[in-house]
Amino acid sequence: MNAKQFFMAALFLATSTASFSQLPPEPNPGGDPLPLGSGDDNGSGGFKPHPKSPIQVPEVYLNGNVLTFDEALEGTTVQLLDEDDIVVFSDFIEENQTSIVFPTTLFGSYKLFIVCSDITFYCEIEL
After folding, report:
1. How many domains does the chain have?
2. Which range (50-59, 68-77, 78-87, 90-99) has the least confidence?
3. Which of 2-11, 32-41, 97-106 is the least confident region?
4. Which of 17, 21, 32, 98 has the most crowded Cβ, counting Cβ within 10 A?
5. Is residue 24 part of a domain?
């Protein structure tokens, strides 16, 4: 390969890489991520609002009655609590599982809890 061919190949690769980086991101499965708050369980049944070290909040999307995660949250428990703080749904996330389908019999406002080890993420959702 001579210098001109090398230069042309390098120019082609540079421009094709730039065009891929300008592609729009793929759409999220359910729109914007849910606004999850977090706390760590202090063993007394309550949550301390400010954990000692920064934590990475998972991106979770709700589309109808399907809860989708941006990555597998293996070993995590998902719970829905009603307005009386009674658990009406609970599921354990298995390996490579990236979504949960809530029963269609559940509708209205719920508190969503995602329990990862000693950190709990939470928000209110509408089904």
Report:
1. 1
2. 50-59
3. 2-11
4. 98
5. no
DSSP letters spanning the chain: --HHHHHHHHHHHHHHHHHHHTSPPPPPTTSSPP--EEEEE-SSSSEESS-SS--PPPPEEEETTEEEESS--TT-EEEEE-TTS-EEEEEEPPTT--EEE--TT--SEEEEEEEETTEEEEEEEE-
- The reply to whether 115 falls in a domain is yes
Taking Cα atoms as reference points, which of 38, 39, 34, 40 lies closest to residue 70? 34
Alpha-carbon distance values, 39 to 53, 81, 88 (Å): 11, 17, 21
Position 95 confidence tier, pLDDT thresholds 50, 70, 90? confident
Cα-based distances in Å from 8 to 1, 4, 48: 11, 6, 59
**Domain of residue 33, residue span:** 29-126
